[in-house]
Amino acid sequence: LAVHVQTSRALMVISLLLGFFGIIVSVVGMKCTKVGEEDPVTKSRIAVAGGVLFVLSAGLCTLAAVSLYATQVTYEFFRESSVPINARYEFGSALFIGWGAASLTMLGGSLLCCSCPAEVRQGQQYYRQSQASMARQYV
User: Fold this and answer.
1) Is 96 within 8 Å of 70 (Cβ atoms)?
2) Of residues 130 and 8, which shows the higher confidence score?
């Protein structure tokens, strides 16, 4: 096969593997699971690590692979050749599905990255009233 096809294939396999690891790390980092640490700050950091795996590795690898192949198709389409125009490759639905998948993966990873851990607050956040309010006294 051509070099750009082999490169796209390798990037997609890497994207699948890193996406799988991103799913595993994200599930461990969810607050609703009992796997791993019980500390909510640590769980949030694990979820952020899963989001980074989704954005940087799975999303960008998929986007690079699909865009590399689309660039090669565009180059071959406009190049002067003996192949008639109706027999040349065009963008197929797989390219658009790949771009959509890369976009959704990066969006999901960025949403996971937004679950940054909050600082642990010491002390009481809400104060109780020591006296009954005036509205309750007149009722």
Assistant:
1) no
2) 8
